[in-house]
Amino acid sequence: xxxxxxxxxxxxxxxxxxxxxxxxxxxxxxxxxxxxxxxxxxxxxxxxxxxxxxxxxxxxxxxxxxxxxxxxxxxxxxxxxxxxxxxxxxxxxxxxxxxxxxxxxxxxxxxxxxxxx
Amino acid sequence: xxxxxxxxxxxxxxxxxxxxxxxxxxxxxxxxxxxxxxxxxxxxxxxxxxxxxxxxxxxxxxxxxxxxxxxxxxxxxxxxxxxxxxxxxxxxxxxxxxxxxxxxxxxxxxxx
Lengths: 117, 112
What we know:
heterodimer, A: 7-stranded mixed β-sheet, 4-stranded antiparallel β-sheet, 0% helix, globular, B: mainly beta, 13 strands
């Protein structure tokens, strides 16, 4: 079955760019939409955006000016870049497939990114 | 944005008893053309990613025990656990996918 795994630095300095990659295994990245979702420690879930394998994107307006998603079909990966980060961007970042019937399934295990100098 | 509001924020239920979690959307998530409610429910246990329980408000995802049920339409939805088991302790989230930005409820913490 499809599995997702996030990777990237766990510590980012304020004002710098957070970069994460999600590797999809057990299936092709083609034919589906792929999302990033984050969860600040002890808080709820926030949808960041999604990308289709063709490269078309949809971003949360609250983050749109700072977010860029990309996809690499040759590596079965998609990526997140979030610029000008602050402490408020400290969160567990999850990648997930947008389930064809709705919701998100499956999810990666998540990776904690801390913004601190 | 569609705001999702869950109630209660936390809930303590005895083992074997019924647990009910409510979710209200700030606008209808019922798509008129196909009569489907664009609402999902997730279960999140500590240190784990959320797990999809229901889509279309009441369609149970494969592998989800039938003690879990989802109901509701339009703006008001309910997740019910008919007989609480110890492994059901978790935070539960509703989420609308009627329109972007997709939004989640604040979560309901279910305890024994």
